[in-house]
Design brief:
Bound molecules: iron/sulfur cluster
Number of strands: 4
Shape: globular
Number of helices: 2
CATH class: Alpha Beta
Structural class: alpha+beta
Oligomer: single chain
CATH architecture: 2-Layer Sandwich
Strand content: 15-25%
CATH topology: Alpha-Beta Plaits
Helix content: 25-40%
């Protein structure tokens, strides 16, 4: 599974990082970035939850 952040849509709220800290991180610009190439099985539920919780639907998950 992979995740992608649409940085044009991200508003830097930090929700994804709070929910799935092993997958998302706010960078120096205060926007979310994906920090893993392939999401480990143990982190996939959190990644999905982060995507569903994003207020601007900026996170795309590829199963
Ligand atoms: S939850 Fe969405 S808007 Fe908030 S930091 Fe993450 S990608 Fe950006």
């Amino acid at each position: 599974m992979k995740a992608k952040v649409n940085r044009d849509a991200c508003i830097g709220c930090g929700a994804c990082q709070a929910i799935a800290p092993k997958v998302f991180e706010l960078d120096d610009e205060g926007l979310s970035q994906v920090i893993v190439e392939d999401i480990e099985k143990d982190d996939q539920d959190e990644a999905r939850e982060a995507s569903e919780s994003c207020p601007t639907a900026a996170i795309e998950i590829e199963e």
